[in-house]
């Protein structure tokens, strides 16, 4: 599973 | 990245600049909770564990380093700067902040997406950030005189949270239609904690009076 893009938030 | 997210990051950055400006220019940290600032150090350290393992963008990397660096700088000023540390309202900064750490950690152990160190600590940082402002709000309530920079600092910090909520709404409806309950609920709790402060902040701004929170 790819990393959830919400983790790219600060 | 949508405009709400960018505006949220910028108000977050701006709040930190306002705080550092206050401390550096006035050589005073009166009205600022060291406990909240220490919690932010923990929030950033546990959230940005992927700083060197996963590259997202130069923007992300730079912002993460700035947030970690400035949060350490603020705590350093308040604890060790020989002039600034004397202005710290130690006796009024009474919130037992370590009581927030354990429940947030237990909650992260119970409610997370994946049971990995990185994911549990990332989730923990979300829960902790949601409540990290509490010692600061308690201190403000006990202060008779809230200076403008302190009031603005908390205002921009709250604005950042509000803009992040708009960012999630935008993302959900216009980008990926994906529900993310953990950041959403902790983000909403965090934003709600500012509601009372915002009410009095806007009231005092309208009346051109100094900000004062009812005890």
UniProtKB/TrEMBL annotation, chain B:
Specify one Pfam family: ER_lumen_recept
This protein's superkingdom? Eukaryota
Name a single GO cellular component: endoplasmic reticulum membrane
UniProt keywords (A-Z) are: Endoplasmic reticulum, ER-Golgi transport, Membrane, Protein transport, Receptor, Transmembrane, Transmembrane helix, Transport
Q: Name one GO molecular function term.
A: ER retention sequence binding
Q: Please list every transmembrane segment annotated in the UniProt record, as residue ranges.
A: 58-77, 98-115, 121-140, 152-170, 182-202
Q: Name one GO biological process term.
A: vesicle-mediated transport
**Cellular localization per UniProt:** Endoplasmic reticulum membrane
Query: Which topology term describes how it sits in the membrane?
Result: Multi-pass membrane protein
Q: Kindly give the PROSITE patterns that the UniProt entry links to this protein.
A: ER_LUMEN_RECEPTOR_1, ER_LUMEN_RECEPTOR_2
Major place of localization?
Answer: endoplasmic reticulum
Q: Would you identify the family this protein belongs to, as annotated?
A: Belongs to the ERD2 family.
The name under which this protein is listed is: ER lumen protein-retaining receptor
Tell me the organism. Answer: Spinacia oleracea
The record lists the lineage as: Eukaryota, Viridiplantae, Streptophyta, Embryophyta, Tracheophyta
